[in-house]
Design a protein that fits this description.
Layout (H helix, E strand, L loop, with lengths): L1 E5 L11 H14 L3 E7 L2 H4 L11 E5 L2 H10 L6 E5 L5 H11 L4 E5 L2 H11 L15 E4 L4 H8 L6 E3 L20 E6 L7 H14 L5 E4 L14 E4 L7 H6 L1 E6 L3 H6 L5 H8 L4 E3 L21 H10 L2 H16 L4 H15 L1
Parallel strand pairs: 1-2, 1-4, 2-3, 4-5, 5-6, 6-7, 8-9, 8-11, 9-10, 11-12
Helix pairs in contact: 1-13, 7-11, 10-12
Length: 356
């Protein structure tokens, strides 16, 4: 099967969660014998930070302007068996409109940002990458979010088929590895700055650092307004951790923190790729709570849900290493049993097959 994907980026993981998501899925599909073409707009901030410029599992076509390059890009699709248009692809609306006129194979929408998309659809009738009018035209709407969002996509916005298509993890890359001194700490957090996440990060990590001055903390990720944030003295900052170092990052801290965007909390059933990746590394995860979380990891058994900094500080001081490590092992087993890249590749095959 030839699959063509129009996506935000696969070549650069800088400041986004799309690249590792696409890499996990497409690598597994290629391993199963499929031919994959990935189309990405060549923008400066990814061009300057490419950590996988030439993936071995797919062919990447970079373009500069849709109006100038669209004929060539559409030519790559004529013999495709399935085409995927991803959220935040810069020219998604123009590409979809053209594809629906020129190809015979199924065109699917892959929403890696469903809660944000839905909020924009409700408030404005669309986003920069999707209009409400286009939704019924897709053969299937693959959603990072499950639960009630799927019903809304079908009943309110007319999706032919809205399917929970969660992120996945590549167990060849994300697995327990040896700890490294540069990442060693008691509690870590890995994530790009987001204004709606920052109050939770300050409440659960920075405030816990104040309550536990003998413990060490680390916040890693780009785009933080450093001049505007006053971290506790025992909180270290790291601007960027490339994906190849994520397993060592997770395995070098006693606990790692997962924080969920407000839109994802409101929608529920929206696990982040970081949650799956940390679990696959056997990390012991502290997280905020949201509807549907227990469908992925069982609170108290596979993940911990402290309500405030006091509870975080207590866990850091009192939870024994043996109990902590067992929890990480249970989380790893749970995620790899249902959310590996191989699971998602098989699901994709089944979806395309069902479309005919």
């Amino acid at each position: 099967m030839k699959i063509v994907v129009f996506g935000l980026t696969i070549t650069s993981s800088w400041g986004n969660g799309h690249a590792t998501t696409y890499r996990s899925l497409l690598k597994a599909l290629a391993r199963r014998g499929h031919s994959i073409q990935f189309i990405e707009k060549d923008v400066e901030w990814y061009r300057s930070n490419r950590d996988l410029p030439e993936p071995k599992f797919c062919t990447v076509s970079l373009y500069e302007e849709w109006e100038r390059d669209s004929a060539e890009l559409l030519g790559l699709c004529f013999d495709a068996d399935a085409i995927v248009v991803g959220s935040y692809f810069p020219d998604a609306i123009a590409a979809t409109t053209a594809l629906l006129k020129t190809v015979r194979c199924p065109v699917l929408f892959y929403d890696i940002d469903t809660p944000i998309t839905l909020q924009q659809l409700r408030n404005h009738g669309g986003t920069a990458y999707l209009t409400a009018a286009l939704i019924p035209s897709y053969a299937a709407y693959l959603s990072f979010t499950g639960g009630p969002a799927l019903r809304e996509l079908e009943e309110v916005f007319g999706a032919q088929r809205a399917i929970a298509f969660y992120c996945s993890v590549d167990p060849e890359l994300y697995r327990p590895v040896a700890a490294r001194a540069e990442f060693a700490c008691d509690l870590s957090y890995l994530g790009t700055y987001a204004a709606d996440r920052q109050p939770k990060l300050m409440r659960l990590l920075d405030a816990a650092a104040e309550l536990a001055p003998q413990q060490t903390f680390m916040v890693a990720g780009p785009q933080y307004p450093e001049d505007a944030i006053q971290w506790q003295s025992n909180v270290r900052r790291m601007v960027h951790v490339p994906p190849r170092d994520h397993p060592a990052f997770y395995c070098s801290s006693r606990f790692t923190l997962n924080i969920t965007r407000d839109d994802m909390v409101a929608a529920g059933y929206s696990p982040s790729v970081r949650l799956f990746e940390a679990s696959a590394c056997g990390a012991t995860i502290l997280s905020d709570n949201w509807p549907g979380l227990a469908e992925f990891l069982t609170p108290g058994k596979e993940i911990l849900l402290p309500k405030n900094a006091t509870e975080v500080a207590h866990l850091l001081k009192e939870m024994g290493d043996e109990e902590r490590e067992r929890m990480g092992q249970r989380a790893r087993a749970r995620i790899l049993a249902a959310h590996s890249a191989e699971h998602r590749a098989l699901q994709f095959e089944e979806i395309v097959s069902s479309l005919g």
